[in-house]
Specification:
Blueprint: E1 4-5, H1 8-23, E2 28-35, E3 40-47, E4 50-59, E5 63-65, E6 69-70, E7 76-81, E8 86-93, E9 98-102, E10 104-109
Antiparallel strand pairs: 1-8, 2-3, 2-6, 3-4, 4-10, 5-9, 7-8, 8-9
Length: 115
């Protein structure tokens, strides 16, 4: 797999991702964008309880399975290390049977368009 090497900043980013995934639990998630040439997936989460949105960016995607839109999202992030010390992630919503295996993950709040 094409996973990136683990760094200290990646660990800090992982903590940020977990914080925002927790904040947006229960929202409505949908596949917002996929770029084939870079294997980048964007998931957009909106919530009746929070203004704005959350974009979850998954880079170097190896596997994507599940619905394209669902309510009551409950994401869990798992870090996976290979023997070569490369790092990858699994983003999963068990209740919705959604899973992404990717090399990197990042989050952004209030990405335009904001409804």
């Amino acid at each position: 797999m094409d996973y990136q090497k683990s760094t200290d900043s990646q660990t800090k980013d992982e903590a940020k991702v977990r914080k925002f995934l927790s904040k947006w639990q229960g929202g409505e998630a949908c596949i917002w964008e996929y770029t084939v040439s870079h294997r980048n997936l964007t998931i957009r989460v909106v919530s009746k309880n929070l203004p704005g949105n959350l974009h979850i960016g998954c880079t170097l995607c190896e596997h994507i399975a599940g619905p394209v839109k669902w309510e009551g999202c409950s994401f869990d992030l798992e870090r996976q290390s290979a023997e070569s010390e490369e790092v990858g992630f699994v983003l999963r919503d068990e209740d919705s049977n959604f899973v992404v295996r990717c090399g990197g993950i990042e989050v952004f709040e209030n990405v335009k368009p904001v409804y």
